[in-house]
Structure formats: C-alpha cells, structure tokens
Amino acid sequence: MLTERQRQILSAIVDDYIRSAEPVGSRSISKRGNVGFSPATIRNEMSDLEEMGFLEQPHTSAGRIPSHKGYRYYVDHLVNLGGLGQHEVDVLKLFFAEKMQEMEQVIQQVAMILSNLTNYTSIVMGPEMFNTTLRHMQIVPLNERTAVAIVVTNTGQVENRTVTLPEGIPMSEIEKVVNILNARMNNVPLHHFKAKLYTEIGEEMKNYVSGYEELLTMLNSVVLQGEDDHRIFLGGTTNMLTQPEFQDMEKVKSILDLLAETPTLAKLFSGASSGIHVRIGSENTVAAISDCSLITASYSIEGQHVGTIGILGPTRMDYAKVINLLDHLSRDMTLVLERWYK
Predict the structure, then answer these.
(1) What is the pLDDT of residues 214-237, one digit of tens each?
(2) What is the pTM of this model?
(3) pLDDT the model gives residue 312
(4) First CA to last CA across the chain, in angstroms?
(5) CA gyration radius for the chain?
(6) Which whole-number Å values give the CA distances from 223 to 68, 126, 138, 226, in the listed order?
(7) Residue 257 pLDDT more than 60?
(8) Which of these, 39, 218, 235, lies nearest to 146 by C-alpha position?
(9) 128-140 pLDDT, tens digit each
(10) Confidence of residue 49 (pLDDT cuts 50, 70, 90)
C-alpha cells in the first residue's frame, strides 16, 4: 500500500511526534541520519500520506501529526518490537524475585510498576476465583430436564443457577454425584476445580453413572459460571494530567469517571484472548477514551485465561515500549502464577 520511502517517512514522523508532542516538519525529518531524503521530497510524500489519511495537519502548522489510521499502520507494520531496556528488565526481575503471599498483592504491584515505567495509566484485572473456594453445592429439580443449582462459596456468596439436566440420568444418580463432589471438592480453590473434576471426581463417577461425561460438563459450567468476576486495580490514574493532549478538564474528567466504573472497565476487556491487542482512538467502543489508545495482554494458568493487563494512554503512545513491556510481563506472570498455584 505504501512505498518503502513513505513507510520510512511515516515511521519517522510517528517516532518524532511520540517523543516531542509537536507537529513534525519535513526539515526535522530530513536531518535524521536514517532517512536521507531532501526536505522537498519529504514534503511531497507527507502531502500524499495526508491525502491517504495517514497524516493530519493541525491548524495552520507546517508540520504533520499521525492520524488514527497512521498509528494503526505504524503498529501493524512499522513498530520496532524487540527486547526491553535494561532499566525495565531490572525492575521486573526484582519484582518477580520478591515473595508475595496473595494474588491481590501481585496485581497491585504490577499496576504500580506499569504506571511508573510508562507514565501512563495501568489497568490490571485479576479473577476472584483465586481466593474463592467451593463450600457446598445442591441440585434442586424443577422438572425432568431442568433444575436449580445452588452454589455456596467460602466467602458466603450464594448463587442460584438454572441448569439443563443431562438426558437419561436419574435424579438419584445426580444427587449421588453431587454428594461425592461436596465431599471431595470442599474448600478446593475454583481455579483448580475443573482439573480435579475431570480427574479425581471423573474417575470415581465412572463407577456410578453411565454417560457421566455430560454430567461433568454440567457441573463444571455450574461452578465456573462466575469465574470471570474480576477485581480491577489501577495505577497512575492521574497520569493523563501530565500529557499535553489532555489539558481539557472535561475530557480528563470523563476519563477519570470511566476509570471509577468497574463494570464499564470490565467491558473494555470482554472477549480478551491471548496475545497483545492494540485499540487506537475510535477503535475503542467507549466514547470517553476515543482519543486514547488501549493496549492489553492476557495472562493464564494451565492454559486458562484468568486476567488481563492493560495500559491506557494518549494515541501518541510509545507503542514499542508498551507492547514489549506487556508482552514480557504477561509471560512472566503466567510462568510465576503457574508455579505458585500448582
């Protein structure tokens, strides 16, 4: 789509604008040692890039700034992904060398570290299921195919969930299996529930129930239906105030209001999958951050997605630094938590 020269010039403009927050002119680009084009050539290419929607010209400035489309092309094709700086490596190494007793402590620390290293706002989501255990389950039939499952946790939370009973399994056998589950799974952390259900309980069920696989699936869905309940920890919530783009107090207030709304924040991470995800400007579905970029990475345990780390900042974000940092941190968290929760 773009020529190699256009790619070089667009990359140089994005890099300069990220660093300076000032519109970038052709002369400053021509002085870069790795470009090697005359100011006149660069001006022509900048005009073409503007016509294609990759650059914008604010007010009457002679310089250009990247558009959201320009940032997207930069992230997808031009950003320099590689290792972390030595300072970031040292900070993360020191963090993961510490002995921490609770998941909540880890998440709080990660949020603080990310905001300090990036000077943006960090959003870290962790599941409640790490500190929640199963206390008791009961299945109350409503008719031949439908029942209400009552799940009680160690936190005192009681959940009533309507379930479809597996066809062909008598209620007496289902009750027998639930009794086994209550005896064997009492106080088992919810993040271990699935693994134990399909191994220990599954082996025992073979002796009592025909077609027990469907029953395992039902019980797993009942207990883990609320596994996506998250707590959200923030770091650097006022860092937006230090960014030149956010001198409009109304704009800042709308962002701060969003950060105070846990359900809305959780929706920003809904459907998160493995890997790094970058949403730029209007790609964010919430109006309050339509002038921001949100970069997220997930972390997992035993292949199961359990939380998300995010960085919220201006579209003029240091994408390379943030992407590298989140990639490194999410992988380290996955490794440490898998060892921790075995």
Answers:
(1) 888 888 877 766 554 557 889 999
(2) 0.73
(3) 95
(4) 49
(5) 26
(6) 42, 18, 11, 7
(7) yes
(8) 218
(9) 555 577 788 888 8
(10) very high
User: Which residue type sits at 108?
Assistant: Q
Name the residue with tokens 């970069």.
295
Whole-angstrom Cα distance, residue 183 to residue 259?
A: 42
Q: How far apart are CA 216 and CA 213, in angstroms?
A: 5
Give the chain's length: 342
User: Cα(302)–Cα(322) distance, rounded to whole angstroms?
Assistant: 26
